[in-house]
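Hello, quick one for you while I still have it in my head. No rush at all, and the record is pasted right below.
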Amino acid sequence: MPTRLRAFTLIELLVVIAIIALLIGILLPALGGARRAVRSTVCLSRLQQMGVATTAYLNDFDRTLPQKAGPLPQGGESVIGTLFAGAKGRLPFYGIDTIGAEGRPLNPYLSAETPTPDAEEGVIDVVSCRSPIDVGSTNTGVPIEGLERTDSMYSLVGCSYTLNDHTLLGEDDATLVPSGGGKMPFVVQPSRTWVIGTQPIYNFQQGGDRGMRWGKGTTVKANLLFLDFHARGDITVPEGVVNETADYSFGP
């Protein structure tokens, strides 16, 4: 007699589909977590690269961090923390959309390539200054249509990272860069004082909330490079104007 092939019944097929759906539901969050961990590791690696570059810069410019002054809307100039490295951004203030790879002082120390002239049209990507965890800001505080929020701080200001040049009280409260620029003050605890960090470290400046949730959940997190040049990731940034925590300090 010919062998009769047995096919799946509808119930068996539905059970298999249910099992596959269950496995996907279990695995997807784990895969998402793994992707976030990898992106955060890459971000920390880029911070450590900046640490090596900053060490070389300090050797050439005695106790002077990479700093660049940009024009202020009310006139005059001031050191703008984001201009220490990166590319041109879209923000039409502080020289962010005019000072690009050539004019940002840490760039030559991050790459052996000659920075693209600022006068050249278009934006040149400076990969080492773009964090893979950068998801922008839901409230930039910029009252210009199309700039009220952004999916990438790198796109907006040219760098996912910022220099520690002022406290959360505001730009006039200087930290590692004196008002008007110049050498660093003496730092008591280099292992606690951060020098370069991801943009969310300034999320609560002056008591506001810039909506920079770059990690999982609603808590604001930052990756930081400290003045002894070790880097730490996933550091909680407390709500409010808090310039010193158990994990880090803005001040010297």
Q: What stands out?
A: The chain has three helices and eight strands.
